[in-house]
Design goal:
Rossmann fold; 20 strands; binds S-adenosyl-L-homocysteine; alpha/beta; about 400 residues; Transcription Regulator spoIIAA; six-stranded mixed β-sheet; Archaeosine Trna-guanine Transglycosylase, Chain: A, domain 4; 3 domains
Length: about 400
Amino acid sequence: MSTPAIYIKQGREKPLRQRHPWVFSGAIQRSDAAPPGAIVDILDYKGSFLARGYANPASKLTARALTWDPTEIIDSAFWQRRVDAAIARRRPLLSADQTACRLIMSEADQLPGLIVDKYGEHLVIQALTAGIDRHIAPIVTALHNALSPLTISERSDDSVRDLEGLPRINRLLHGSEAALSDVLIVEQGVNFRIDLRAGHKTGFYLDQRRNHTLIGSLAAGRKVLDCFSYTGGFTMHAAKGGAASILSVDASEPALARLRENLSANGFAADDARFQQRAGNAFEILRDLVQSGERFDLITLDPPKFAASGGQVEKAARGYKDLNMLALKLLNPGGMLATFSCSGHISLDLYQKIVFGAAIDADRNAQITSHLFQADDHPVLLTFPESLYLKGLLCRVL
Ligand code: SAH
């Protein structure tokens, strides 16, 4: 049986020739019938081979390329090769002081739609597309062969599955349920207890690793505000770095409860008065702090994704500007702000302009001392610049 084909419209094949892996429905001239997630050959309008990948007729992002080699067959050996290669690239990152990392980063690791994170001996996978969903069995086998993990959980409960017509799934694929809501990992020497069943994303914001340690190195003696703290990625590193005090703010009570457990896991007393938490809407809490005349020396601003699509950029920009304006007002002279956007639709250039506008509104003069990005286990594929999503600025108020 021959592989079903997708024919690309004349003049629309250039991105594929340049190894960009996405095919939108508008670029397709015609296609053979194929079930969601099936392997397809992607051909030009004359029928010449461009790439091989998987397709989902139900999605506007209809196909994603897996290989540009016409001789490469997508079988279990293919999944094993790609999984092994991605894991081999991460080995140098892992040590006794660093037991968690992203093993597979979707397009950036030439496995579009697949995320795999390692938390100690536990793996968490996310299948974001019908193509990965359909091939989950050989992928799980490949992970087994490579790492013999204690457990493999599937956290395919991201809203992007809706666009693929897939149900949201949260299940255990291998191993026993018992300890999954409390898995201990070490991130750059700092302990974190992770909930792999119900935590955000796959459980932790591994993408902020480098920025977490940067904040740790800046915290000594400083009064810190960790805004959008989640379970304390920045708070823990700042605490270990010798912060004078830390106020952690998040809308989620369970996240703050876990943050307190993480403080204990790093040897801080539960009632240590240096560490305070406030649950609620960060916009309101920041306004409140400004009004009551509070000041800080170091602020982290790490909100959730405000722009899920291009159409939401303007509204997102207003939200980012408000937050940054309030944070800048809260800083003492010489104080530092680490401010982030994880919206792929907001470029670093645009984000810098937003923070510029915020500084004008806050009547603060500031300098940028570093541009910040996602950690290096979240690489950016040159042919797929969309894999850069997390960007930030480290600013000093003059
Ligand atoms: N800084 C964290 C990750 C933050 S993720 C780390 O490094 O681990 C974003 C967080 O923002 C989530 O914990 C979410 O609960 C919180 N959040 C979302 N909307 C919020 C709001 N309006 N006010 C306060 N927190 C909010």
